[in-house]
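name: query_chain
kind: protein
chains: 1
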Amino acid sequence: MFNRDDVRILGNGPFAVDRNDPAAASSAIELSLPEGFSSKAWAAWEYFDGSAPAGTAFLFIYKNQLVVTDESLYLTEHGNGTAEAPLGFPRFVGDSWEELESWLEAVYDEIKEQGWL
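structure:
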C-alpha cells in the first residue's frame, strides 16, 4: 500500500507515542520522505529541521496510515486540554502519498506567505 522505491525505512529512530494504544506504538515504522516528491513538498519538509516556529517532523506508517508528528512523537489525537489530560495530536494523518505531498505543498504555501522562507 505504501511501498515506494524512493522511500527508505529509517532505523534507530525515535520511539513514537500513542496515548490511546501504548502497546501498538511499537509497531510504528519511521520512513524517509519520498525522493520523488515535488520541490515544494521537500522545501516544506526541510523547513521542519528544528527551526522555530516549525519544530521537527517525523514520518511514520502506523495502523495503515501515514502520520507526520513533531518532537512530541504523538501518533494519535488524545486528551481534552485539561491539566489531567493535556491535548496532543500529530501534524498530519493521511491515507496516501498524494495526500501527504498535497499537505506539504500547502504547508509550503503557508510558510512562504508568512515570510518564514
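note: Residues 13 and 63 are 18 Å apart (CA to CA).
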